[in-house]
Amino acid sequence: MLAAFILKRLLWAIPFLFAVSIVAFALIQAPPGDYLTTFAATLAASGDVVDSERLDALRTRYGLDQPFLVQYWKWISGVLQGDFGISFEWQQPVSGLIWERMGLSVCLAVSTLLFTWALAFPIGIYSAVRKYSIGDYIVSTLGFIGLATPNFLLALVLMYIGVVHFGTDVGGLFSDRYQAAPWSWGKFVDLLTHIWVPVVILGTSATASLIRIMRANLLDELNKPYVTTARAKGLSEFRLLVKYPVRLALNPFISTIGWAFPQLISGAVITAFVLSLPTAGPLLLQALLAQDMYLAGAFILLLCCLTVVGMLVSDILLALVDPRVRYR
Amino acid sequence: MATVVDPRAHAHTEVASQWRLMWWSFRRHRLAMIGLTIVILLYLIALFAEFFAPFDPQAARARDVYHPPQRIHFVDTAEDGSWRLNPWVQDYKLERDKFTLQQTYVPLEGERIRLDFLGSGEPYTLWGLFALETRLLVPEEQGRRFYLFGADRLGRDMLSRTLHGTRISMSIGLVGVLVSLLLGLTLGGISGYYGGTVDMVIQRIIEFVLSLPTIPIWLGLAAALPADWTALQRYFAITLILSLIGWTELARVVRGRFLALRTEDFVTAATLDGCSEKRLIFRHMLPSMASHIIASVTLAIPLMILAETSLSFLGLGLQQPIISWGVLLKEAQNIRSIAQAPWLFIPGVFVVVAVLALNFLGDGLRDAADPYAQSGR
């Protein structure tokens, strides 16, 4: 039964991925003029000679004179073999530029998710159990403000506090001496000392909404007769809470991967730009501003794929944890 | 013992319309009432930005670059100890350090810029129709400047700019939501009313749109806008882009309501009475879900505002000379300018307040619209 569910869900992901790739390609195509005009303009701007033979070769390679679907086919079959085209701005294959940045993006998103859970879980339980206590009010107020503050504003404020009161720059993911160094234990530790700033910034709004969901769900459960029964049987309050209602209220946590992942990845684009993190966001933005469409398209495609995978993982986890989902 | 209440005392509740009942339950929601007040205020500012702003938001003055905010005083004391009610601000002078060339503004003791309520300032045309020159607060002496929110890197008045930004930011939320509402009502309505295969297809589309990472897609679409478009074209294009993603939540609400209403007795009765489909939908079903739709619309506006702010902040949304909160915050992007002029954050405060107020208002409306709502959730 479970295997059948997972299989069905996996099959569903295929048309999704297909649709996502069409969206990404449509975005590549969207700017007026084809990208060789952009390319020629970039070359001319940097003082290079515009070689018409080379342009023609590129035109045939990407089939620019052919209809949309043919071009899409050429692009996607290249992508499936790991060839994302060339970045006009960087003058090198896109695939050489994106992987490390995508890796750091995923790393950031996953750490933020863990942070969100670690914080929202106990706080949500607390504010449901101690409904209308001072602590609950404080948490709710902070939560509302967290939801209303755009990520980049929070990033700017933290940067301001860092610079004015502590005299340090909170941007970046690595110290200067590890910037270009190959991966090592030292670099990893260095990453850990830097990553918490973007994690806190990104996690705030997701944490706030999770706390609200957790609180609402748990409040629903706490009034149910089985809780009263368990209490009447003399179960300790803590055991009673953790064993039954919390277990049921957990579902939204697992399904968060589904919506939190796209949100985190979206939000990370702007935050990473403000904090100048070496993740996918700033490069994507730069590519979009320069209309370097193959690079931008590759990022958009990969970011979209990540969210589809995130949803897939959350659905499968949900099915593992909650039998009701499996048998529906 | 409960006291016996004369049932006639309740007579007015029996004939109260649904809207009146909603208003009664809404009124009890204190946060929502505060939210409503702030939202009304913000839209008033948006409507009459020229009146509330003391200066033309584009007027630059090189002498007042990064002029710090001045505190407004209301009681004007003269040297002989007499006093009168008259708003004034302290005048500042720009001084340059001889060695470091660093600029600082120092207060000029005893120099006051006196202000007038409802005085006549720089002339303006309201909504392109009425030529006026009355502004809420102007300097008594024509040609003087004062900066309650400080000045930006070109010496433009941040107060005037923030108030003008209110117009664009608050309206882009409204216009964007109207477009989303149109899409959401149509698709959600079709999906919920007809059900079956159509419903399946539309649900999959909604799931797909929801699973897209919004900001990269917005950025991609916004970057694809032709660079030579006019400010107005860009404004509408950005609104359209925002609502292309924002309609899904509304569609889900509408679909859910349609599904729930389809089995209600009054709908069955109307069908049996031989109502046409059009009449059934527009006369019977839509009015009974109007309150829910209004609540979801209110909750969708802040998301639009946040999205516009983010896009403009990154330089892909609205652009100068249009002023929105996001465009203003773009000025506060690098660490040097914010360390030097933290008052550039003020538009950010407006964003947070507007979003909070709209959220409270929406929450209150939603609770009021739902007759089965539990209090305290």
Can you give me a brief rundown of this structure?
The complex is a heterodimer of chains A (328) and B (377). Chain A has 328 residues and is mainly alpha-helical.
List the helices and strands and how they pair.
The complex is a heterodimer of chains A (328) and B (377).
Chain A: H1 2-29, H2 35-45, H3 52-62, H4 68-80, E1 86-87, E2 92-93, H5 95-129, H6 134-148, H7 151-166, H8 185-222, H9 225-232, H10 237-243, H11 245-249, H12 251-274, H13 280-289, H14 293-321, H15 323-326
Antiparallel strand pairs in A: 1-2
Helix pairs in contact in A: 1-14, 5-6, 5-8, 5-12, 5-14, 6-8, 7-8, 7-12, 8-12, 12-13, 12-14, 13-14
Chain B: H1 11-14, H2 18-27, H3 30-47, H4 49-52, E1 72-77, E2 83-96, E3 103-117, E4 120-126, E5 130-134, E6 137-139, H5 158-194, H6 196-211, H7 214-223, H8 231-262, H9 265-272, H10 277-313, H11 325-330, H12 335-340, H13 346-369
Antiparallel strand pairs in B: 1-2, 2-3, 3-6, 4-5
How many distinct helices of chain B?
13
Architecture of the largest domain in chain A, according to CATH? Orthogonal Bundle
Task: Indicate the CATH class of the domain at 35-47 and 162-375 in chain B.
Answer: Mainly Alpha
Q: What is the global morphology of chain A?
A: globular
Strand order of the largest sheet of chain A: 1-2
Low-confidence stretches of chain B: 373-377
Provide the CATH topology of the largest domain in chain A: MetI-like fold
CATH superfamily annotation of the largest domain in chain A: MetI-like
Keywords:
heterodimer; A: 328 residues; mainly alpha; MetI-like fold; 2 domains; two-stranded antiparallel ribbon; 1% strand; B: 377 residues; alpha+beta; 4-stranded antiparallel sheet; two-stranded antiparallel sheet; 13% strand; globular
